[in-house]
Amino acid sequence: MKHAYLIMAHNEFALLKRQLHLLDHPENDIFLHIDKKVPRPQYEALVCAVVEQIRHAGVQFLPRRRVAWGGSSQIRLLLALFRAASRTQHAYYHVMAGVDLPNKPHDKILRFFAESAGKNYMEFCPVEEDILDRVRYYYPLQNVLVKRCGSLGWYLQKALVRVQKQLAINRARRAPFAWAKGSNRVSVTHEFVLGLLGFYAAHRRRFRMVYLADELVVQSFALQSGLPLEDDYLRFCLWIDHKPHTLTQEDYEALVASPALFALKYSCETQPAIVE
């Protein structure tokens, strides 16, 4: 059974082509979303290049949508990718960004998951009180205003949150499940994906007008799913000041020594040597 790679990209298209080259295997299907903020001529040129490049894997472009960092639009895109890919059953579904690359040969990746006995791989992080603020309050500006208006947008959004705190609004209080947090980069089974889609359909309103809740929806479903879980998202990533570090040539030895199957984040624009 094939593997599905669900890829969200908005920049670094030279790196994306490198990623697709490494994933171009008969056992893979690729589901690719390019943000609608990318100008149409650039997008059309990229589609032509990808279609010409891919020789062995299946590839499907999702209808483009405008995605805002940290907004509920990220959740909707993630679920749209799962929905599109799961129309045909796959052995595993791997969520990646366009700045990720496989860190092991494809045969080793296939062998690892063939021996995984249906386990679902993802990261679990502590859910501290401030994390729940992401789903406790409404963030109506996150999808449309914050990125466009810069500091003014952030100021307005913080003011709205302060008002909601004074009104004792708490959307998370009566959730019929436990909240959990982790990266949205996961490797999960078909059974997990179908359950996740049902979970989201049942609780969609809890994930409207939220902030950074793409890091909550998958893990929150996972905890109550009863499915086999592994607290390991199989990705190599270095964090500096709470942000993923762009890998450099100095990180090469640690990268090669890591057992992780995938790695992030790369940049062809600023650190091309490590990509090659």
Query: Can you give the helix content as a percent range?
Result: 25-40%
* Number of DSSP-assigned strands: 12
Query: Which strands sit side by side, in order, in the main sheet?
Result: 3-2-1-4-7
The helix count comes to: 11
The average pLDDT value, as a whole number, equals 92
Main beta sheet strand tally, sense and closure: 5 strands, mixed
How widely separated are the two ends? 30 Å
Q: Please state the structural category.
A: alpha/beta
Order of helices and strands: EHEHEHEEHEHHHEHHEEEEHEH
Principal-axis shape equals globular
- What Rg do the Cα atoms give? 19 Å
Proportion of residues in β-strands: 15-25%
Give the SSE map.
Elements: E1 3-9, H1 13-23, E2 28-34, H2 40-53, E3 58-61, H3 72-85, E4 92-97, E5 101-102, H4 106-114, E6 120-122, H5 129-136, H6 146-149, H7 151-166, E7 187-188, H8 190-202, H9 217-225, E8 229-231, E9 235-236, E10 239-240, E11 243-244, H10 252-257, E12 262-263, H11 272-275
Parallel strand pairs: 1-2, 1-4, 2-3, 6-8, 9-12
Antiparallel strand pairs: 4-7, 5-12, 10-11
Helix pairs in contact: 1-2, 8-9
